[in-house]
Backbone:
């Protein structure tokens, strides 16, 4: 690859009087372009080290360059790692010695390792968009070589504009054979000046052409490049090698900003000093930029320039500058004189003086107005400063220590806060709004003032008047005092910090209507919630204060009665319940305030409202639906709707009125009733699983619920169907488990023994005496107590579950 600052063979350009410098970098999009970038096609490098190869790539891969090449065919190439971009506008790059050569056969002397073939797969143009300024003169240079003939030249035009545009300006035509013979001296057009050249003057068949071009069009961005005219063999896919091409007017420069400044203690300005930005090609020897100074600051008293005079030069080295901060910005050198004398605010104005070596113009808008002057304000360093922190965790704890704990940020409470410096007579010495980041600074504070203090207030003070009272905006509280301890003024007093914090807000809670369970039974309180500007959403895991208790009920948290103004920390919503003091319809209300991580509570508590209805005097109702849910080891997951309006032999036939029990109008959970009504033909030895689903859908709670299901004739109850499964329900350890029970679940919640023991279930063998509601027990019966005190004394509306057992076909 070419050296980053490589010259064109240290070539003197005669009339041009300069050597163009190459820098193969890419301009940042936000800056204008005044010269060709990546002029030698060296970026990126292709192939492995020393590999002789070529690639055809999409134009986006070659920094700086664009093409008018059409999407005529898929790109090809043989460099290591090459992948075809497909049918796209192509740029073709060769490495040294490709196509039968060796060493540097195809490369001009000292011209790097890569070059471009203009005719990739058709006659096209390679170009870059350059900012041209009206009535300027541009210098150019290029290496050109024919590809396939030592007697017939490849021909290319150098032009401003695209070859597809009839208004483009051709200013040079170049004809070169493969051995460097110039079959016709370069043709200069449209005012261009192009010196006569000798054959093979750059070595290995390459010829260097140079010249100047006057530009008379309007200032603006223009495509500038090379358009193929012809090739030696007439094949538009072969010919016109290009390398080390450059086209550049005078560089453009301006100040990066119109103003800056810092305290005078910054004697070597680094915060935001004036800086020059340059875009374009600076020739060998560099250029000098003359800067003058003026303003209210006094040279020699407030600051010094590098020349100790009101004018001085900034040297810009040779280079191809793209405008980027990293390579194209030069800081103006000067020093500030620091002293302990209050001097107020002073300003230095730096101005770029005109020159024939560069243009002063916008570096971001082609032809735009430049920033030719930049002011630098010197602030007196005799100051007092501090910061107001959003102390979200109250780490200050009403002190001025440990205010900031890492992730907290500064604040000005929405722009409503002022810092006020007050003297020993409570008169305002200085007043300033607190900045959005919480910082404040009093400049030019008088020295040796005794017993001054700083206060925070929403009222801006007036110098000389009595200080306003300390205050904060609505919904803000202080975590440190709002007034500092008294102190004496001196030079550069800092870190006079304060802590403030925003209050949380609690959400009102309106619970859905719930049945009053009566007696000493409790009702779950709906989840408490709130928000906090610093902590975000508040709910589970946060703190809440029960401000007032309900008048018609008792609140419990984790089984313990809550007291008024009790703060619940690490709040668990499942543990807050209420026991209504009366049975029947009533509304429970109480108030609650969210407490944030700083321990500050919402000053306007929210209300929790829980409407309760009376238990209905109507009879409860229980729906039972029976399904076959397994045959042998095959689970049956069908969802079947029982109907009476089909043939009795149909698989989903259920006699009226039981056919409506599994309708969606009942509040069964979605897809809960799985299994078959008629499972078809079975054979002896098959195992069948029966599931009896239950749903409480009456107006009142169902109590003392027992289910008895007779074992179907021609089957035998399997007493060990669920042996070894857990959880159990209080039955004898080691007893056979032939019954499964699910309460409020789609899977069993307990497995029951067949024996009469401490669990809910029992299996009665054939002809054994069973509860009267079972009927005739001629083949065995499964009996389960669904309700049981104290864990399930009744079934509320919409409570669901099932009983399950298995049999074997006889």
Residues:
């Amino acid at each position: 690859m070419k050296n980053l600052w490589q010259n064109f063979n240290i070539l003197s350009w005669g009339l041009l009087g300069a050597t163009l410098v190459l820098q193969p970098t890419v301009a940042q999009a936000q800056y204008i372009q005044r010269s060709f970038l990546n002029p030698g096609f060296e970026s990126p490098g292709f192939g492995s080290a020393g590999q002789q190869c070529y690639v055809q790539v999409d134009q986006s891969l070659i920094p700086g360059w664009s093409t008018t090449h059409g999407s005529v065919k898929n790109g090809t190439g043989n460099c290591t790692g090459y992948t075809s971009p497909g049918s796209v506008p192509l740029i073709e790059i060769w490495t040294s010695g490709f196509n039968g050569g060796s060493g540097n056969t195809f490369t001009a002397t000292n011209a790097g390792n890569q070059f471009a073939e203009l005719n990739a797969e058709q006659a096209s143009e390679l170009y870059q968009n350059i900012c041209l300024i009206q009535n300027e003169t541009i210098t150019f240079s290029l290496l050109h070589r024919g590809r396939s003939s030592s007697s017939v030249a490849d021909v290319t035009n150098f032009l401003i504009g695209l070859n597809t545009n009839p208004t483009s300006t051709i200013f040079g035509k170049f004809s070169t054979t493969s051995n460097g013979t110039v079959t016709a001296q370069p043709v200069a057009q449209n005012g261009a000046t192009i010196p006569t050249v000798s054959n093979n003057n750059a070595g290995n068949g390459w010829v260097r052409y140079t010249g100047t071009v006057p530009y008379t069009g309007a200032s603006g961005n223009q495509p500038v490049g090379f358009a193929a005219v012809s090739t030696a063999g007439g094949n538009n896919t072969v010919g016109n090698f290009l390398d080390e091409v450059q086209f550049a007017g005078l560089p453009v420069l301006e100040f990066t900003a119109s103003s800056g400044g810092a305290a005078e203690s910054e004697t070597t300005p680094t915060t935001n000093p004036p800086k020059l930005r340059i875009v374009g090609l600076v020739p060998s020897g560099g250029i000098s930029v003359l800067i003058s100074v003026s303003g209210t600051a006094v040279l020699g008293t407030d600051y010094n320039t590098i020349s100790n005079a009101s004018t001085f030069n900034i040297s810009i080295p040779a280079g191809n500058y793209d405008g980027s901060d990293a390579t194209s910005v030069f800081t103006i050198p000067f020093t500030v004189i620091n002293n302990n004398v209050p001097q107020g605010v002073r300003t230095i104005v730096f101005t770029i003086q005109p020159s024939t070596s560069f243009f002063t113009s916008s570096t971001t808008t082609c032809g735009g107005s430049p920033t030719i002057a930049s002011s630098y304000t010197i602030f007196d360093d005799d100051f007092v400063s501090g910061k107001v922190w959003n102390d979200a965790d109250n780490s200050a704890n009403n002190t001025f220590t440990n205010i900031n704990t890492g992730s907290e940020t500064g604040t000005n409470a929405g722009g409503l806060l002022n810092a006020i410096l007050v003297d020993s007579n409570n008169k305002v010495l200085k007043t300033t709004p607190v900045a959005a980041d919480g910082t404040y600074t009093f400049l030019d504070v008088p020295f040796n003032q005794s017993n001054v203090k700083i206060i925070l207030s929403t009222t801006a003070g007036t110098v000389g008047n009595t200080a306003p009272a300390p205050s904060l905006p609505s919904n803000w509280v202080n975590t440190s005092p709002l007034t500092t301890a008294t102190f004496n003024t001196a030079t550069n007093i800092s870190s006079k910090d304060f802590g403030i914090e925003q209050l949380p807000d609690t959400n009102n809670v309106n619970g859905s209507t719930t049945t009053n369970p009566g007696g000493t039974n409790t009702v779950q309180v709906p989840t408490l919630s709130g928000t906090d500007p610093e902590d975000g959403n508040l709910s589970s895991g946060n703190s809440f204060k029960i401000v007032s208790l309900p008048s018609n009920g008792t609140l419990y948290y984790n089984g313990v009665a809550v007291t008024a103004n009790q703060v619940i920390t690490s709040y668990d919503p499942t543990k807050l319940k209420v026991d209504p003091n009366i049975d029947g319809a009533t509304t429970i209300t109480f108030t609650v305030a969210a407490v944030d991580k700083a321990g500050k509570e919402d000053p306007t508590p929210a209300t929790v409202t829980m409407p309760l209805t009376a238990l209905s005097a109507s009879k409860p109702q229980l729906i039972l639906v029976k399904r076959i849910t397994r045959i042998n080891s095959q689970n049956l997951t069908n969802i079947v709707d029982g109907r009476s309006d089909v043939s009795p032999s149909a698989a989903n036939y259920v006699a009226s009125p039981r056919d409506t029990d599994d309708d969606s109008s009942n509040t069964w959970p979605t897809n809960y009733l799985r299994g078959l009504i008629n499972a078809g033909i079975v054979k002896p030895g098959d195992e069948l699983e029966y599931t009896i689903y239950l749903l409480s859908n009456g107006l009142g709670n169902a109590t003392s619920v027992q289910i008895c299901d007779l074992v179907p004739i021609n089957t035998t109850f399997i007493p060990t169907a669920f042996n070894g499964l857990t959880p159990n329900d209080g039955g004898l350890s080691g007893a056979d488990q032939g019954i499964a029970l699910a309460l409020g679940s789609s899977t069993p919640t307990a497995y029951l023994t067949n024996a009469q023991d401490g669990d809910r279930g029992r299996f009665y063998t054939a002809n054994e005496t069973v509860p009267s509601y079972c009927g005739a027990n001629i083949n065995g019966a499964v009996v389960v107590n669904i309700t049981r005190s104290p864990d399930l004394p009744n079934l509320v509306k919409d409570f669901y579950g099932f009983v399950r057992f298995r049999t074997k076909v006889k």
Summary: Confidence is low (pLDDT under 50) at residues 1-28. The first strand starts at residue 54 and ends at 58.
